[in-house]
Amino acid sequence: MKTKMNSSHPIHISITAVAKDSDVVSYYVVVISDLTEQKRAENELRYLANYDPLTKLPNRSLMYQKIANAIKDADNRNSLVALLFIDLDKFKPVNDSFGHAVGDQLLCDITYRMNNMLDKNAIVGRQSGDEFLLLIKNLDSPQSLSNLVRNLIAELAKRVVINDFAINISASIGVALYPFDADTTDELIRNADIAMMHAKQSGRNGFKFFTEQMNNQLTQKLLLENALKDAYKDDLFFNNYQPIVNNKTKKINGVELLMRWQHQAELISPAVFIPIAEETGLIDVLTEQALTRALEELAPLFRANSRFYLSLNLSPMHILKSNLTERLLLILNQHHIKPAQLRLEITENTLLDDKSKAAKQLRALRGAGFKLLLDDFGTGYSSLTYLSHFPKVSPKLAFIYQ
Questions:
Q1: pLDDT in tens, 192-205
Q2: Residue (of 60, 231, 369, 203) closest to 391 by Cα position
Q3: Contact 335, 279 (CB under 8 A)
Q4: Strand pairing partners for 207?
Q5: Whole-number CA gyration radius for the chain
Q6: How does the average pLDDT of the chain come out, rounded?
Q7: CA 363 remoteness from chain centre
Q8: 81 touches 139 (CB < 8 A)
Q9: 240-278: per-residue pLDDT in tens?
Q10: 364 with 346: CB under 8 angstroms?
Q11: Cα(12)–Cα(32) distance, rounded to whole angstroms?
Q12: Is 80 within 8 Å of 136 (Cβ atoms)?
């Protein structure tokens, strides 16, 4: 139907016959309904179900369908399909520092730049948050794919200026190929994601192709995660103590707490289980559990010598908790131990991750009476000048009795 408002309208026509008796129709009643708004609402719902409203890219649901269709076409044509799982590095600090409006503009800018690099065989979609999926159909060769990924890495690492804010960001990319790395759509997405996580663990701003070894490593990690959670609930961790000796008097002034875990009759290295505890968010409760255990086990030494102290390593994840000082004081008060008898060892990463938040936390700990030590001093970026920005954090210079 045509009106002054629009050249065409979707309409619904209903015609009803009206008869005075059962044989003769006297007239017809025609009802014409304008369906413009209904169709507009239907189209909008259909769009929202398939596209990301911010970037206008296909969303996770639509990308899943496109990947599934690409796999079917690849089987028919005997060709390759590549899936890139793209995760922006340190996107959260951009949102936290500059606001979500700037973060949204950055996502749109990245979308625009990626689309400009791609040809008709490539489709980019938004997986979630700062994650994107890039589907490449009819792949020519692994070499051309590697070149594309390198170009993407270089492009996404370029500085972006938004609202006068200069933003430096990069991306970690995982790559999986069909049919070499997966048999189904779910497997292809999962394996590209696994490869991306390995790229991120390798230092970010890079890419990795999926390998079966990655899958095995992830499986082992997931098993350890579950075992670690059970070990915490069942209090299966235990403490070792390394004496700290005064080099002049040769007397033991204190001990350093070393958390240990035995799983399936094998000691699991802290270098393995500590990062997992940090990722799962268990590191703070495990640390507090170990501290409580130490104060109970070492109670006679604390009672015999008021100068005896315990040295405790704090994870960057733990020290940036807002209520850390209160939690530590609560545990010490329950065991009648003074803050001066607990020395807190922190790593350089703690200071580098969020300088302002770390400085505020360190001031609170120092104000509560804790002595702070910088562990592994000089192995990263720290220097005596750098330390001057933080409240009385001393390099750890204790001689350890072996």
A1: 999 999 999 888 89
A2: 369
A3: no
A4: 173
A5: 31
A6: 85
A7: 28
A8: yes
A9: 999 999 888 889 999 999 999 999 989 999 999 998 998
A10: no
A11: 6
A12: no
